[in-house]
Amino acid sequence: MNPIKNIKAIEILDSRGNPTVQTKITLKNGVSAKASVPSGASTGEHEAHELRDQDQERYNGLGVLKAVDNVNKIMAKKLKNQDVSKQKEIDKRLIELDNTKNKSKLGANAILSVSLACARAGAKVKGQPLYKYIRETYNFKKKKRFPIPMMNIFNGGKHADTNLDFQEFMIVPVLEKNIDDKIRVGAEIFHVLGQILREKGYDTDVGNEGGYAPDIDHTIDALDMIMTAIKRAGYEPGRDVFLATDVGASILYDQKKKEYIFKLDNSSLSSDQLIELYSTWLKKYPFISIEDGLDEDDFSGWQKMNHELGDKVMLVGDDLFVTNIKRLEKGIKEKLANAILIKPNQIGTLSETIDCINLAQKNKFKINVSHRSGETNDDFISDLAFACGADFIKAGAPSRGERLAKYNRLLEIYEQEK
Ligand code: PGA
Ligand code: ZN
Prior knowledge:
eight-stranded mixed beta barrel; three-stranded antiparallel beta sheet; binds zinc ion
């Protein structure tokens, strides 16, 4: 029995300089642990509620003092003396305490900070690394396999001040090497891409997720430069390194016209035409994964896309599934996709995140554990990804401290486990 003595949240800032919640749990035996939560910019319509103060006098309304109060006054009281090792029970209590469909009362940000901090404290009292604790708590099989990094080296959409409509272009070093080599290869290509951009007179400042974000002339220019960078770094596209994109299509969708608007390429495409575009790209570029290729509620479009492209490429639901078991159940039944993005803050507790992973794995969906565009140095997702045997981890470019925190944690785990 490891009873909780005290739970204390504070308002801290994320990588965009916006407020977020950090929670510290202290146990009666003196052990303590902290967790902080990230925040999205291209947030899915169906995500759990991120509670913000809406007080325009502070941080443009983005303050999280109410969420902090909910931890300190409501959750702290409810969980006092609770055994921290009973993670599933703790999460159940938190869900009951909120008692809304989307955690709008206490805030998913507040709830998740407590849930994750409890897991860290639970691991600490057992003297285990976090990944091992998660693995044992949720009965995942022990695997030596590390998730393959998807590194977002070209930032667009809502994540950068660029004219690129596509939110993310990523490189995926799949080569038969260990995780340290995969991360190295990603970083090498990232630097070569910087060189190429400089040679062409482009800006090399980085966006929210650490990738380059220059204004370009056509979308495919970004793809061509990435292909050149892979080759110039000494790797073979389609063998050593693949491409991936997160289109972030919900933001590009005009509900009235039922069209996707790509300003850079001066084109408006129906679902069918967009699927056709992806199909053309698949013939020309080594894409391994297309995330949120269509709007989050364009179910018939997703079904068609999965039918036409699902055997050639991973079709990842992020805004489509929002780490929510109900949305995923629909996706499985209606064959909407073949992979899922996992973001704990889309649902609000560790246990619900794991439920979603379990359901996805049972149905042979590929798992991609992901950061958010607004991050802290918290590296929880790296342990989570390793513990559940995720196929991929998406943590941005190998640039910016809050992105590297995740890759560096994987390197630490590798050192312990190899
Ligand atoms: P977000 O972006 O954190 O801004 O939602 C990440 C993603 O869409 O995968
Ligand atoms: Zn996404």
